[in-house]
Amino acid sequence: MEWPPNHTVAYLVDGDEPLLVDAGMYGNRGQEELLAGLEACGYRPADIEHLLVTHTHVDHVGQVRTVLEAGDPTVYAPTRVRKCFDRELGAVATEIERNLAEAGLESEALETAVDRFCEIKGDMRTALPLECVDVWIDAGERVDIAGREFEPIYAPGHHVTHCCYGTTLGEDDVVFAGDMAIEPFRAAAIHSNFDDHVSDGIDAYFDALDRLEAYSFDRVYPGHGPVHERYAEAITDAQTDLEARLKTCVDNLEACTADGDAATAMELDAERVDERPDQVQQLREIVAILATLERRGRVRSSLEDGVRFYEPV
């Protein structure tokens, strides 16, 4: 990958009917990495009989077409993918523009950001065409794949379509966790990019972590970072980090409004990321954090000419 964490993981579960969990990063380098990884295990893309998707980010579905063009795998994806992809992109673009403007973006920066987020939406739909999905998976309904039973666990927050999959390997209870339960960091709360559900990202993340906390797994196969055996600790670490981000946001808001003027999410984002090039990318989480803080009564906001301003309570 060209951005942190600089790598992404797909997993091959071998057997009579080989299963691939996620399909790596899009682009030529992602294809080369996937082909080399399969070859190192004695496989080719044409050998894959089942392909299971955790969520639709392009670093996880980027090489679905590579596998499809080589063979005829059965493709499994969360049902919520269909709901997201069925939406007309023009309507989504309108939502994105309104929400970015509300966050404090202006003029050229706004237009550039809208174009970028729409491009991301288009890339995901291109990478995982709806017509290629054979089995739609509902969270909580166990599914048999390649003779193995999987339990889908809905885990949004990082992305609204995200599912983790619990199963057994040998005598161990394991989870293919996608971008949850990663060691040693927490994936960002991207949730819905800047669609109208952007403000739900943090609350959805907390709900997902609470749901995952009810499970116990011996080993985690995450979408980034090493395979590990610290499932419970990884969930707790993510919960702790989210709470810390909420506190940091309140502290930044208090500092930013010390002169008596309310602040936009964009102004707070500049405080957080120190004007890094990916500032607008990080803005999604700030907007969601502020929405959660407002629901908790920690901040209040007002909408003025399409721009939302915040101040601490």
Automatic annotation (TrEMBL):
It comes from the Archaea. Keywords: Hydrolase. One of its GO terms (molecular function) is hydrolase activity. The keyword Hydrolase applies. Residues 7-224 form the Metallo-beta-lactamase domain. Pfam families: Lactamase_B (PF00753). InterPro entries: Metallo-B-lactamas, NDM-1-like, RibonucZ/Hydroxyglut_hydro. SUPFAM superfamilies: Metallo-hydrolase/oxidoreductase. This is MBL fold metallo-hydrolase. It comes from Salinadaptatus halalkaliphilus. The lineage of its organism: Archaea, Methanobacteriati, Methanobacteriota, Stenosarchaea group, Halobacteria.
